[in-house]
Amino acid sequence: MNRLSATILRNSAFSLGAQLLIKSLSFIFSVLVVRNLGVESYGQYAAVLAFGATFSIFSDLGLAPYAVRQIARWREDAEGSQKVRDLYADLLGLRLGLSVVTIGVLILSAWVTGRSPILIGAIALNSISLIFYAFQGSNEAILAGMERLDLTAGSRVINQVVFVLMGALALWAGAGYFGLIGANLVAVFLMVAACWRLVRSLGIRPGSLNPTRWVVLLRASIPFGIIGLALGLSYKFDTVLLSIYRGDAETGYYNAAYNLVFSMILISNVINTSLYPSLSRQFSGDQTQHFHQVFTRILRYLLILCLPIAAGGSILAGQIIPFLYTQSYIPAIPVLRLIIWVVPLMFISEFLGYMIAVLGREKQVARAVLISTGVNVLANLILVPRFGLMAAAVMTVLTEVILVIQQAVTLRTSLSDKPMIAKLLPPFGAVIAMAVVVWLVHTYLSLELNILIGGFVYGIVLVLLGGVDKEDLGFVVALRRRKTRDPVTETQ
Q: What is the C-alpha R_g of the chain?
């Protein structure tokens, strides 16, 4: 594992830096979008994006994550270069064909569900991005498999900057959400061009296109495709149902809170996408005995980060919503107060899912996701038409609970002989102390002061309970200096 820590650091540092910039721009701009469009127009815009996200997995079918794992493993193969080139060509051809079919299914579904002609037009325009993402996803799979996620960071920054600038211009010109969709298409196209050049800069070109390999490729990617399809339904099906049964306003309130929650998943996603290709390569080597140490350490870091977000966001929801979105979004407060608890659950479920996939047991991940998504879809179909956005919020949280339980059971045999609960307790103690203090003072102080006091209390108690110690600081310092020895094994 002497290269693992440095690789993860490089990928995490560049990705995190770029994603922080992207998410900061995205967060600020999303607030402007919500304020500018108003509740009903924003609800329509959210419905357009939800339709696209729900069907987008059919344009990939799990090909990207499967390709990342295979490329990471082939890097040390004598014939790996040719295998990568051939896979690159097949990815491009297969994903392009799948995207065209998906666009047709997407537009047909919008028509069948009785969407208005204007909304169908918006959904059709937005679906063009699937063609661009066919190229983008293939290029990013190559870069991720080569463990060069740092190279994709710049292209994503370009994408977000262009979208924010052009989107702001569209809003200023009164183009509404059609203008935002157009701005996104231009931004994605430029990102594709940048990413294509990055892949070529590594000397990688598409090999021979061979459709006879596509059946084998699709069969191998099916578990990943099932995971993606199920997650897509879990995350966006409720918005589609709200749009159909409850109207634009309720859809707007729900997504105002929902999007705040999902903007918090940045750190988890960056860490996990950085870990995945590196551990996929390392696990087949001579360092597999360190799986438990890496697992425990990263899980503890994720808990340290996500627990205060959930507790603080729930307590301060009554201040956060009007501060960001004005008083017109007050109905979104109870939604945020509840749905914010999906943040720690998603941090954990994403991490556990990647770790199970690293072990080569992605079929078990697919089964777990299918079960939790089945519960989600069935319950939403029954409850959302009658109870609306609060039912959707409850099911979002419950879905992640069901998923985490299944994943924990799956990993139990790999971790059962390694005690780790004691190392995971300090973040829980610290967040309880923080929550008590913030709850007692939050009605008397501004949002900014509540956040500062909460963060101070959490940090102090976390250190006192041993949640952050010299070993952790040594781990970070060692990574930053890229020492040849592996700090993970030294400090456990």
A: 22
Q: Tell me phi and psi for residue 143, to 5 degrees.
A: -65, -40
483: left (phi over 0), alpha (psi -120 to 50) or beta: beta
Distance CA 155, CA 135 (A): 13
Tokens of 100: 């065209």
For residue 423, what are its two tokens?
């190392």
C-alpha 157/C-alpha 160 separation (Å) is: 5
What is the distance, to the nearest Å, from the Cα of residue 101 to the centroid of all Cα atoms in its chain?
Answer: 25
The values of phi and psi at residue 444, to 5°, are: -100, -10
Alpha-carbon distance of 396 to 236, in angstroms, equals: 10
Which amino acid makes up residue 409? Answer: V
- Our measurement of the distance from residue 306's CA atom to the centroid of its chain's CA atoms, rounded to an integer in Å, reads 14
Non-local (6+) Cβ contacts of 205 within 8 A are 85, 88
Among 344, 400, 347, 346, residue whose Cα is nearest residue 375: 400
Q: Which residues contact 245 (CB under 8 A, 6 or more apart)?
A: 384, 385
Dump pLDDT digits (tens) for 16-52.
Answer: 565 666 667 777 888 888 888 888 888 889 888 888 8
pTM here is 0.70
Q: How far is 157 from 492, CA to CA, in rounded Å? A: 36
Query: Which residues 6+ apart lie within 8 Å of 340 measured at CB?
Result: 260, 261, 309, 310, 313, 314, 317
Separation CA 355–CA 350 (nearest Å): 9
Map tokens 């994720």 to a residue: 302
In which residue are the tokens 């590594």 written? Answer: 202
Site of tokens 């699709």: 218
Give yes or no for a contact between 106 and 79, defined as CB atoms under 8 angstroms apart.
no
Cα separation, 383 vs 351, whole angstroms: 29
Q: Nearest Cα to 16, choosing from 232, 222, 268? A: 268
Q: What is the DSSP code string of 74-107?
A: HTTSTTHHHHHHHHHHHHHHHHHHHHHHHHHHHH
Per the CB < 8 A criterion, the answer to whether 355 and 295 are in contact is: yes
Expressed in percent and rounded to 5, the helix, strand and coil fractions of the chain are: 85, 0, 15
Residues of the domain holding 310 = 4-490
Residue from 336, 457, 483 nearest 4 by CA: 483
- Write down the pLDDT at residue 485: 42
Angle subtended by helix axes 80-112 and 63-74, to nearest 10: 170
Structural domain count of the chain: 1
Angle value at C-alpha 373, between 368 and 376, nearest 5 degrees: 135
Q: Which two tokens stand for residue 294?
A: 């890496």
Predicted confidence (pLDDT) per residue in 114-155, tens digit: 888 999 999 999 999 999 988 888 888 888 777 676 677 777
Residues whose CB is less than 8 angstroms from the CB of residue 144 and which lie 6 or more positions away in sequence, other chains included: 68, 71, 72, 152, 273, 276, 277
